[in-house]
Specification:
422 residues; rod-shaped; 10 strands; 10 helices; Heat Shock Protein 90; five-stranded mixed sheet; five-stranded parallel sheet; binds adenosine-5'-triphosphate; binds magnesium ion
């Protein structure tokens, strides 16, 4: 390596106390473009070596204040100057002296008188070697720094992984908790839905119980009181004879009113719980309700029972009766019909009830208004009654085309034990 390969001028420190040597070496190196620093004693040489950081030191052994070997030792002990290449250049030619020069850390040993070219060649060789060393050390340092950065990055990745795992675990726990709450919510919702589904059935059951109770009450209390009052009025009329004409007329009117009240109570009570249903069965009760409709509204109602026994299980009889009753109520309220046909057929363990009118009809698929406190429960209740009997419920209707309510209920009779599906 020449001085120009350093990028800046290579610096040579010459430590020698003989002026002719100094002059010669200075001329030589300066002539080759080197920057030359000079010290004539060891103490200054040490100080310049520290301050000016030369690239190479040419060191005489015999110096006025210190042996050159000792100066070299000092340089090698100090980390800031330890890497400076030192070439001894001396008149001491003994091999022991040469050995000592290498022992204390010198890289070369040149004896005086020296060859100009040889000194230059050796100086260049050591500058190159020391430059290569420096480069090696630089690259080593870079490598070490890169390794440290890699280690650091690895540690960061490990740390990131750890925190990611922690977050995943935390998130998983949160999701599990959410899931658990969701399952509870779903179970609760199912329970509420189940209750809601049950609700109409319970209303119907409560309605039936209440109707029965009120019918009973009317029969047992109000009817009895009215009968007893009529009996007494009858007695009064007979007892008083024709003595007081005006009183007789009033009593006769009261008797008539009491009779009407009794009939009305009986009618209401029948509607609430027709005694025919319990006493005579569904056909008789259905006849009675159909006749009533004809009597109030003039709508002609035809009733047909085909293959239906006199006695049906009470829950089937009651629910079919209510379905007929509510269907006829609807016809009376909404249909503006002139004819109705009520038909009940038992076939293959299926009881099929149809109530068909020739009225104005309606669109069963049209969205219905929410239930009002005073109505809109009829069709819901019909469907629920069919469901209570494990049956099906269907409305066949269209505007202008009349309406047919069809209910199919399975009834497995003892003589036909197969399971029926409506
Ligand atoms: N036979 C029918 N002909 C024409 N429209 C009917 C008939 N039956 C039901 N509807 C229509 O269906 C609607 C719902 O009937 P639903 O029996 O459920 O309620 P509602 O009769 O209005 O009230 P509620 O029966 O509770 O007293 C009626 O308002 C009516 O518009
Ligand atoms: Mg109704």
């Amino acid at each position: 390596m020449t001085h120009s390969e350093f990028g800046t001028q290579a610096k040579i420190l010459i430590v020698d106390d003989i002026p002719s040597n100094i002059t010669l070496l200075c001329e030589m190196f300066e002539g080759e473009g080197f920057e030359v620093l000079v010290s004539v004693n060891a103490r200054d040489g040490l100080e310049i070596a520290h301050r000016a950081a030369p690239d190479l030191i040419l060191l005489d052994v015999l110096l006025p204040d210190m042996n050159g070997f000792d100066l070299c030792r000092k340089l090698k002990h100090d980390p800031s100057t330890a890497d400076l290449p030192v070439i001894f250049i001396t008149a001491k030619d003994e091999s022991e002296s040469r050995l000592e020069g290498f022992r204390v850390g010198g890289v070369d040993y040149i004896t005086k008188p020296f060859q100009r070219e040889e000194v230059l060649a050796r100086a260049r060789a050591h500058l190159t070697i020391s430059g290569l060393h420096r480069e090696l050390r630089r690259q080593n340092k870079m490598l070490e720094e890169q390794m440290n950065r890699c280690k650091h990055a690895e540690e960061e990745v490990r740390e990131a992984n750890r925190s990611l795992e922690d977050r995943v675990a935390e998130r998983t726990a949160q999701l599990q908790e959410l899931n658990r709450r969701l399952e509870i919510d779903i179970a609760e919702r199912k329970r509420i839905e189940e209750n809601l589904r049950e609700f109409p059935r319970r209303i119907i059951a409560a309605q039936e119980t209440e109707r029965k109770r009120v019918a009973q009450e009317l029969h047992d209390s109000v009817s009895q009181i009215l009968s007893s009052a009529r009996y007494r009025i009858n007695w009064l009329v007979e007892e008083s004879g024709t003595r007081n004409k005006a009183s007789l007329e009033v009593a006769a009117t009261v008797r008539e009113l009491l009779g009407m009240a009794l009939d009305e109570v009986r009618r209401v009570s029948n509607n609430l719980r027709p005694p025919e249903l319990d006493d005579l069965g569904l056909l008789a009760a259905a006849h009675s309700v159909c006749d009533n409709v004809t009597a109030w509204s003039g709508v002609q109602v035809d009733l047909h029972f085909t293959s239906v026994p006199d006695r049906l299980p009470p829950d089937i009889a009651l629910n079919l009766y209510r379905i007929i009753q509510e269907s006829l109520n609807n016809i009376h309220k909404h249909a503006m019909a002139t004819r109705v046909r009520v038909q009940l057929v038992l076939s293959n363990s299926i009881l099929e009830l149809s109530v068909k009118d020739n009225g104005k009809g309606f669109d069963p698929a049209a969205p219905r208004a929410p239930l009002k406190p005073d109505g809109g429960f009829g069709l819901v209740s019909l469907r629920e009654r069919a469901t209570t009997l494990n049956g099906t419920f269907e409305i066949r209707s269209a505007p202008g085309e009349g309406t047919e309510i069809v209910v199919r209920v399975p009834w497995v009779t003892p003589d036909n034990p197969q399971t029926a599906k409506p």
